[in-house]
């Protein structure tokens, strides 16, 4: 049995370290699935298992724990950056500007409440109390990358003199943070006297068709001599409007034309276009006519299909530009991007690797599939080089010192901020540099979850030794109480203001709150009570900016205020 005892006690052996992480992560994942009141802590439970392991002395070399912690953090934030990058800048569009401003206000209010609690309830002469409040705040807003950014910044400020671990404050505040986010959104409902049925009905009935979205079908006779002998592709480019010719009558024969089909003067065509474009199309092609050759429409079953975007020509194009409904006779109901389901808003840009849910008649869906590429084999090859090139650039970028007057040390974005920013830029503009930034959803989620698990396990094990003294015998109850205040006060203020001032739909507010707190459980709850996609739209609109600001703010607070 000596070999087994040595396996668990010899801290500097590879087998011991692998065993430590495997046990902590696996047990944390399984315990995180337990739901209380329909709410679970998910993978964050790894942190609590790690704390328990560290408390009982089941640990490893500090240098190894630190390496795995930092590597996990880099991997986690980089994959998040690739995920949110394609939609980061588009989220500031007309529809999302107000939501992003409100999310920013919520983040600033979190900081304000944190400082208020710090000055009211803690000894400001103790240099460890403000950093501990930073950890508490990030537990209250359920943002793990921010915790990592803060810990890294604290290391640069305190160095070897840091005799505390902010993960303790994070762990105290996190459980009530998850519950408080959902509870505060429910409180907004009662404060603003929201009728859920009325809100659902408003979402269902309120989206009225506009001329650019409503399809228009007409039979035309070609009388423009310019068209004679030219292909449909040439005509579409010249017209500079999206149209589809679904039927062609040429010399008494009805056919299904393709983009290479030549058209001639005197031909009769069935044209589908946006209602707003109909007058221009008629003026260019020829007069609208009644025909006797059209086929009687037979009842056809609608199909729903996920189509993957692999055609590079579609990269960056918006849904409104492509006019799926008016031109192709289909509806795009959802976009799946790097594991996130997004509402198919008109201002969303398509990117290679996106999966779009298309609903329509079989032939129309097939037409869209051909246009999008829909070739899975083009996406199967892993693009590992791009990931590690991005990490290299991100680490260099994060290490650039920026001297700011009044700061004890130069500002650095660090191992969290640098890779995050580079990943966002690569996710959005990587194709300009001929870098394939797409990773399959499963690959992205796998790498991200491995990184998060390594980070949480390392933080927990390192914090475990002093957790009992810090929390139970120290200010643990204060961290719980102040964390709860940090969670609910900004949500109540911003959510109520968004409802009263801007008249946002309640479900949009729920999604935006979940996104600004980067909290998937809150989004899941919102989706469970809403019949439409409003929560997902609100979430995806504010999530990229919120994640970026949470990480950046953590470092700014530490570097400016904790020196």
How is this structure best described in words?
The chain crosses the membrane at residues 13-32, 39-59, 71-89, 101-122, 173-192, 381-404, 410-429, 450-468, 480-497. Its main location: membrane. Belongs to the AAE transporter (TC 2.A.81) family. The protein is an alpha+beta fold and 563 residues long. The protein has 20 helices and eight strands. Among the domains are: 2-37 and 44-175 and 384-437 and 439-476 and 541-561, no CATH class; 304-315 and 329-378, Alpha-Beta Plaits (2-Layer Sandwich). Strand 6 (331-337) and strand 7 form a beta hairpin. Residues 207-211 have low confidence and may be disordered.
Q: Main attributes?
A:
563 residues, alpha+beta, Alpha-Beta Plaits, four-stranded antiparallel sheet, 20 helices, 8 strands, elongated, AAE_transporter
Topology:
Blueprint: H1 2-9, H2 14-32, H3 45-55, H4 62-88, H5 97-121, H6 129-140, H7 144-158, H8 167-191, H9 196-206, E1 215-221, H10 232-239, E2 243-250, E3 253-255, E4 268-274, H11 278-285, E5 302-308, H12 319-322, H13 324-328, E6 331-337, E7 340-343, E8 355-361, H14 362-372, H15 384-399, H16 414-429, H17 441-502, H18 506-516, H19 520-529, H20 534-561
Antiparallel strand pairs: 1-4, 2-3, 2-4, 5-8, 6-7, 6-8
Helix pairs in contact: 1-2, 2-3, 3-17, 4-16, 4-17, 4-20, 5-6, 5-17, 5-18, 5-20, 6-7, 6-8, 6-17, 6-20, 7-16, 7-20, 8-17, 8-18, 15-16, 17-18, 18-19, 18-20
